[in-house]
Write a structure and sequence with these properties.
Blueprint lengths: L1 H33 L35 E7 L4 E7 L3 H4 L3 E4 L13 E5 L17 E6 L2 E14 L13 E8 L9 E14 L1
Parallel strand pairs: 2-3, 4-7
Antiparallel strand pairs: 1-2, 1-5, 3-4, 5-6, 6-8, 7-8
């Protein structure tokens, strides 16, 4: 009888211990469930993208060229021609190729974006100039920039006409050569092509 009572007492004690253990585990689980979930760390804000500033040629930049220096190039895609451009329009320079006429009063280098004037002999560099038409493009490469002009006027004038080389407030390219193209000797007229700047980009 005593043995049976002891076994019953031991069984009850074991049952009571198991119940208390389960109760503790249940309380711990409820506590864990009631704890708020940790807030996710905020994602770092993306760094603002810095837009590259559009660069422009420096209109105040001056150049110390000597007469006859190669300084630029002139390309006319419609006649598949590219010409070297030299500083000056004296006879010796024009014997080299196309010359850039720059004066303190009326004309400038392309970076100033005013009136740029190029001249060349009809019987050496500008032999196909008569095939160029209004709407064609002339591209001048100068000091790391490409200046693209669209021809909007072509005309013939007297060789002594001084109204061609004048000051302009807008970027304009004027190309001149002697005319008639097949004339032998000093031609009496000048063939003029003029275009406004329509595009500008770094080479």
């Amino acid at each position: 009888m005593l043995i049976a009572f002891g076994l019953a007492l031991a069984g009850w004690a074991g049952y009571d211990w198991m119940q208390s253990t389960q109760t503790v585990e249940s309380i711990e689980e409820e506590a864990e469930a009631s704890e708020p979930a940790p807030e996710p760390e905020p994602e770092p804000e993306p760094e603002p993208v810095q837009e590259e500033e559009e660069s422009e040629p420096d209109p105040t930049k001056s150049f110390e060229f000597e007469k006859g220096d190669e300084i630029a190039s002139l390309e006319i895609p419609s006649i598949d021609s590219r010409f070297e451009v030299f500083w000056g329009t004296d006879d010796a320079t024009l014997d080299q190729g196309v010359g850039m006429y720059v004066s303190d009063e009326w004309t400038e280098t392309p970076n100033v974006q005013k009136h740029t004037v190029l001249s060349g002999h009809r019987d050496t560099v500008f032999t196909e100039m008569g095939d160029v038409e209004e709407g064609d493009v002339m591209q001048v490469e100068f000091d790391g920039w490409i200046y693209e002009y669209e021809i909007d006027d072509i005309w013939i004038t007297d060789a002594d006409d001084r109204t061609v080389i004048v000051e302009k407030d807008e970027p304009v390219l004027t190309v001149t050569t002697c005319y008639p193209f097949d004339y032998i000797g000093a031609a009496p007229d000048r063939y003029i092509m003029q275009g406004e700047l329509v595009d500008l980009y770094e080479k």
